[in-house]
């Protein structure tokens, strides 16, 4: 059962990506975030927060789950609406949260 769950997570992660590299993670997400109407987030504050989250995920041993979540978020249909991107990336978010909870 565990192997099947991992295979499903991998397939969904691939479906959410457009084969962009990991190097786009935080910078791409923050570029999109500052363009959201009514959001007072600056690119610098977003990058700082994203870098801190990246470091926390790496320290918890959740690098792959974090990358998968970032990849999905970067390619979500609507990155300005948390309800929409949380639904679209729900499997990646659940995987990341499960990993973080285990550490």
From TrEMBL:
It comes from the Bacteria. This is Secreted protein. It comes from Sorangium atrum.
